[in-house]
Every structure is written in C-alpha cells, then in structure tokens.
Amino acid sequence: MKDFINKFGQTSIKLSRQAKSREKLLDKMLEKGLTEKVTQDKIFRFKFPEVTKLPTPILQFQDVKFHYPATDIIPEPKILFKGLNLGVDMDSRIALVGPNGAGKSTLLKLMVKQLKPVYGDVCVHSHLRIGHFHQHLTEQLDENLTPLEWMFKEFPDTFENNSNGTEIMRSQLGQYGISGGRQTSPIKFLSDGLKSRLIFAWLAFKQPHILFLDEPSNHLDIETIDSLAEAINAFSGGLVLVSHDFRLIDQVAKEIWEVKDGAVKQYKDGIQAYKKMIAKELRNSKN
Are strands 255-260 and 238-242 parallel, antiparallel or unpaired? Predict the structure, then answer.
C-alpha cells in the first residue's frame, strides 16, 4: 500500500484521490494495529563455557627451532623459527601478526602440537583442553552427514552415557543458530557461515581452556564477528589469534606477537599502538 501511495500520490487527480484514500485507510489500520509488525532478525550470539583455571604457564616453548622437512624440490628448507622461548597462560589475549609466509599458522600448529619442533620442546599442561579453529576445518566436514550425526560421531560418549544425549546436542547446535530442520539436513546444504558456526559449536562443546583461532572471521558477517569478539572477551580462558581482521584484533587482543624473520617479537600495547609503530618505521625508512 505504501508503494502505491508513493508512486501515484503526485500524479493524476484520479490516482491522487485513490492514493489519499489508501493513505487514510493505512492510517486507520496503523491505529488499530492491523498492519504486519516489522521484526528484526535475531542477532546470533556466540558463547564459550566457563572453565577452571590451570597453573601458569599452560604452554611453554623451550629453545624451539623449526623448519619443514627437506624435499627434492627444497633440499635445504628455510628455518622458520630458532631459539624460541615463549609462554602462554589462561589470561593471555595474543594476536599473531606479520607478513604472509612468515610462519603465523605454523607457530599456531606448533602450539597445538600438530607439528613437532626439530629442536627444543613445546611443553603443555597435562590437563589442558585446546580449542583449535582453522580456516580449512569446514572443508574437512563430512558433508553427507547431518550436523546432529556429525556431532554424534565427534562426541560418542555424550550419547552412550546420557539418556538425553540427543537433546543435549540439539541444544548445543541451537545455541549456534543451527536449529530445526537444519540439524537433520545434510551439512552440504548449509551456507559457509553456518558451517563455521557448526565448527564453533563443536569447539565450544570441548570446553577448552584456551582458544587457538586461525582466521575465524572468514565467512562471518560483521554482526557475527562482533558477537564472537564479545564471547572471547567474556571467556575465562586464553586466546591466541591469527587474523587479517584488524577490527577483530583491536576488540580482543591485549598483546601483539609479530612473527618475522625467524623470530617472535612481543608488544604489550595492542594493535593500534603496533600499527602506529609500523607506520613510523615506514616513514623513517623513506627519509
């Protein structure tokens, strides 16, 4: 009705009269509450479970050296890290930054023990539970399974040891915006954003003490990224983040670790101070 009024309200006399008549009718409908209510989409909210504190440090690098194995093509691989001595605890809020190819994701993989150093040790607390998100996890989903079936597969004890295991997992998926028929339809029909949410539902169900997030904002809209930032800030555990999203880094990181030239340099003042420092260095290099 509004479209009709806007379109024809200023044209011929006949149509103008019709427009005014409909405008009066619309006013009466508004007064009586007969028009359809305008509703806003519900904003999705991340939430990570509370966890008990572990003694510091929960993760420690001791004189770590790393390079990838030699190959026929690269007989002498580049040393990515040498002499690393680092510590991470449950109060850490760290963002890893640096040039592409410097080793940010590699450092994260060393932390979660997906890679082993060629020298030195990565010591992890014996009770530490890790939540590791990386940008290729969604590609590893079995897309022929439903979200509910996939969670059954990942957490079999939940269903074997709980008579209400299905309800527990339905609730978990629902908290991450995967509800109704989406829970029982094949994963291949989910959008990239919902696949990312499925991974976060899985990650949160593990009740991690620390989050290792590698480009977590891929496929997420701004509102969802802001919700992720709020959840991280409310989380009682630690964080190590790799991201090109400086807006997300600015919201959640207290420390910046620059990965560059085989070393890791720590800055305690956040991403804005780091950016100003880099800009100053660039200006000085041009003089």
Answer: unpaired
Residue 269's pLDDT band (cuts 50, 70, 90): confident
At what angle are helices 147-154 and 165-175 packed, to 10 degrees? 120
Cα distances (angstroms) measured from residue 59 to each of 125, 174, 238, 264, 273: 6, 33, 11, 16, 26
The answer to which of 1-5, 84-88, 89-93, 137-141 has the lowest mean pLDDT is 1-5
From CA 3, how far away is CA 217, in angstroms rounded? 38
Per the CB < 8 A criterion, the answer to whether 246 and 271 are in contact is: yes
The closest of 137, 121, 108, 66 to 210, measured between CA atoms, is 108
Predicted TM-score of the model (pTM): 0.80
CA distance 287 to 274: 20
Burial tier of 161 (Cβ tally within 10 Å: 0-12, 13-18, 19+): exposed
| Structure confidence at residue 67 (pLDDT) | 94
Q: Is the peptide bond before 57 cis (omega within 30 degrees of 0)?
A: yes
The sign of the torsion formed by the CA atoms of 190, 195, 197, 203 equals positive
Q: Phi, psi (5° rounding) for residue 280? A: -65, -40
Q: What distances in angstroms separate CA 238 from CA 13, 134, 266, 276, one per listed residue? A: 69, 16, 16, 26
Mean pLDDT, the chain, rounded, equals 86
In the chain, % helix, strand, coil (3-state, to 5) comes to: 45, 20, 40
